[in-house]
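Researcher: Here's the sequence for the chain we discussed earlier.
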Amino acid sequence: MKANYDVVVIGGGPAGSSAAALTAQAGHRTLLIEREAMPRFHIGESLMPEVYWPLQRLGVLDRMESLGFQKKLSVQFVTNSGKESSPFYFKQHDPRDCSSTWQVERSQFDQMLFERAGELGADCYDQTRVLDVQIDDQDRATGVRVRDAQGQEHEIASQVVVDATGLQSLIANKLGLKVVNPDLKKAAIWGYWKDARRDDGENEGATIIMQTENKDSWFWFIPLSNGITSIGCVGNNDYMLKQGLKPEAKYEYELSICPGLQERLKDADFQGEIRVAKEFSYTTTRHAGQGWVLIGDAFGFIDPIYSSGVYFALETGVRAADAINEGFANGDLSANQLARWADDFKEGSSWIRKLVHAYYTNEFSFGRFMKAHPEHTGNLTDLLIGRIFHDQAGAIFDDMDGAIATAKRDAMSM
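Model: Thanks. This is the structure I predict for it:
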C-alpha cells in the first residue's frame, strides 16, 4: 500500500469497484479499500436489467454468463389475497439482450467486480478499515487514515476520495449530510430456502413481490442458483422489530399470513440462519466537495422493493469515475465537477422513489390502475427495467398521482 494515490475508493461493493476500475483504467493511481475479507456475504441479490450497460462498460458480461447466475426475465406481484398479476416480461417490451438480467449471489458478484478493478490497475486491499477521512477546513479531502489486515495504521494522501461505504456513509455521517425519510423507515427479516417451488419457463427466475394479508409487510421471492431461494419480509421498523417477538418468530408469523408463499414453501427446507437489517431510506444534502464524492448507498438509499440498489451502485460508480477522469484532465476536482452527474441521477431515481411510495399506499391498487390505464404498461415496465434517465420516464405519474389522491380521498369518506 503506497503513501500517495490520485484516487482512494472506500468500499469494495459494486459502486466502489466500478469507480476504482474506471479511474484506474484511465491511468490514475487508484486504491480500493474494503473493510471485510473478500468474498463476503451481502444482501441485494436481484438485479435490474439496466445493469447491462455498466457491466458492459466494465467488460464483465461474459463473466456474468460463465458464473452461472440464475437468469431473471420477469417481475411479478401477488396481492394480499394471493392473486397473482400477469408477469412483466422485460423482453416482450424490448427483445434486446439488455432486457434480461440475473439473480446473483453477491459474494461471487462483488468478488468478480473487485477483481476486475485490480485487473484494470487499481491496488485492491480487503480487511482494511478506514479510520478517518481527512477533510480540511476548506471542505477539501486530503486523504484517509487506515488500519490494514495486519493491524498497522497508514496515512494515505490522495487528490480524490470516493465514499462507497454503503449504509456506513463515512463522509455523510462525518459532515452531517444524511436526511432520513420518516415515511420509509423499514426493516427486513430474511433467510434462504432449498427447493422452494418456482414457476416454469421464463418465470423460473422471476422476482416475485408478495403482500401479506394485513398489508403491513411484503415478501421478496428471489430464485438463486443451485435451488436456493432468498425469501425476505419487509415492513415498518417498529412493526418488524419492536413487537416483542424474536426475529425468528416474527418471520414465521409473517410467512403464515402471506398467501402467495404457502404452496411455494410446502416442500422447501430452510437453510442457515435468520438475518435482520434496517432498511431506512435516506438522502444526502450534498453529494461532493473539493476532492470527495459520494456514490452507491453512501449517496442515498430508497427501498429494496424494486431491486434498484445494485443498478444505482454501478451507475453512480461509472458516472463518478467519468467525472473524476474528466476533472483530472481539466485540472478541476471541485464539488461541481465531481457531482456534475448528480442532478440527472437524482431526477431519474426520483421515479423509482415515487413508485415505492405508490406501492406503500395501501389505499392504492396497481392492478386497478393498470386496468384503467393499459397505455402505461410500457412505461411501468421501463421503470422496472431501470430505464429512468430519459424525458418520458415519469409519464405514468401524470395519471398515477391523481389516482393515488382519489384512492386516499375515497378511503377517508368511507
